[in-house]
Fold Neurogenin 1.
Amino acid sequence: MDSVYSDIDSNSCDFFPHTDDEDSRGSPRCASPEPEEPQPQQKKRRRGRGQAVVHVVKKNRRVKANDRERNRMHNLNDALDTLREVLPAFPDETKLTKIETLRFAHNYIWALSETIRIADLQAGKPGDAPLLLGSARLGDAASPGSDACSWSSSGSSSSSSSSSSSSSSPSYCASSPGSPVGGTEDFGYRPQDALFGFRSFVPGVY
DNA sequence: TAGGCCATCTGGTCCT
DNA sequence: AGGACCAGATGGCCTA
């Protein structure tokens, strides 16, 4: 725990200048996580030769570990970006945050599965008109012009609002799993709700 | 200015 | 032993 690295904390980018393939998106932060003030060699500790060697070995190990960790996080962010691309998004919507992406993806998947389930139920009934909740409808959901809330509270919602009786109806979804925000469970949750206004609808619900 | 989000560093733990 | 994964800490940037 000794401040072994206290004097090495110079960012590892010095050693691995963007070893990552696409650090381009990488923040310039990497270049200088800390204001590179000319460290005036403060409190240099004398070390024996052996200690110095151990120190260098540790330092190299740490630098390599940092680099791996950086790449790992970049991979994670790439996966998150890929997920964002798959999710419906409004053109003018700013980039979803990480947590928003995960929660929205969760709701989106749930909405899709609910839609399929309801469509199957409807299809099972003879004489019923085909339900417009298929993927095409979901595609509409992502269209910028669609008024999410109004659509979800009227129109075809009447035929699907019964989803509240679903065994998989995610009350946890409405309150966004893991979200400490409460008091949002009582607004009826429908598959469509998961797709619309994930940001402007109800804070903490997406 | 406070709060949210993010990237990075770091040390610990687990796994191969 | 070394790598992967994780969570805490830290500091920068941005926005209300």
In short: Residues 27, 29, 33-35, 61, 64-65, 68-69, 72 of chain A lie near DNA strand C (CB under 10 Å from a C1'). The CA atoms of residues 154 and 193 of chain A lie 12 Å apart.
